Amino acid sequence: MAAHATPPARTGLVVIQALRKKHCAECRSGPLALLVLEDGVPRCLDCVDLGHLVFLPRGDTALTRRSWEESSLSAVVVRFDRRRSRYERQGVLVEEAALARAEDRCLADAEARRRRRVRDARRRAAEDARFMDAFATEIRRLFPGCPAGRAGAIAAHASVRGSGRVGRSAAGRALSEAAVTSAVIASVRHLDTPYDRFRMSGVPRYEARRRIAPVVERALREWREAGEGRDGGDERG
């Protein structure tokens, strides 16, 4: 900091973080970490009646604002930046009791946010569970021969939140036949065919799909026709 540099005019009291070793012009204490320029000379915080304040570094906007509101006496702390040739705000000085009250308010807010996150997580989990049940029900309607456990597993896999899978698409959320069928096809492809092995051995995706297409079509046909067979049996009975 230049010897006679003057911090910019601000509302309220301004305290400077010293860059050079300076001593208080009044009590001669020093070197000073924090000082106030009064009548053009440095003075320590005790001599200007600010020694009882505590320093709150910048960074937490909510805590700073609330500490400032709670404190009947406060000051802005600045430091001269030689590279930028200007004073930069470093934090504030506030009363210790005011800081404690501000921390309590912030903690209360944090607890409220935590409770809200818990409620939101529970709500999303319930929504996801209802949707997975609906998706599995639609799978069993379209593919009556699909085992119940398999339908549930397909629905759970397809509808994972944030996965980008078909169950999270607009069509999937609407339980469109195309989206549900796509999820079933993906399950059959990966679990009931050598598709993954083909891909790992370097077979291009479209060629791998072509090779397994008959297996997939047969599985889908069997799962569809299983329901028709049951319906037919009921009618004959």
Largest β sheet strand count, sense and barrel closure: 6 strands, mixed
Strand fraction band? 5-15%
Shape designation: elongated
N-to-C order of helices and strands:
EEEEHEEHHHHHH
Q: Could you report the average pLDDT, rounded to the nearest whole number?
A: 85
Task: Tell me the number of helical segments per DSSP (H or I, 4 or more residues long).
Answer: 7
Q: How many β-strand runs?
A: 6
- Strand adjacency order, main sheet: 3-2-1-5-6-4
- Write down the domain tally: 2
Instruction: Classify the helix fraction into a percent range.
Output: 40-55%
User: Which value, in Å, is the CA radius of gyration?
Assistant: 35 Å
Termini separation: 99 Å
> What structural class do helix, strand and pairing data support?
alpha+beta
Can you put this structure into words, describing what you see?
There is one protein chain. By secondary structure, the chain is of the alpha+beta class. It has two domains: 13-94, no CATH class; 128-224, no CATH class. The protein is built from seven helices and six strands. The chain has a six-stranded mixed sheet with strand order 3-2-1-5-6-4. A hairpin with a 4-residue loop joins strand 5 and strand 6 (86-94). Helix 5 (177-191) packs across helix 7. It starts with 12 loop residues before the first strand and ends with a helix. The model is unreliable at 1-10 and 232-237 (pLDDT under 50).
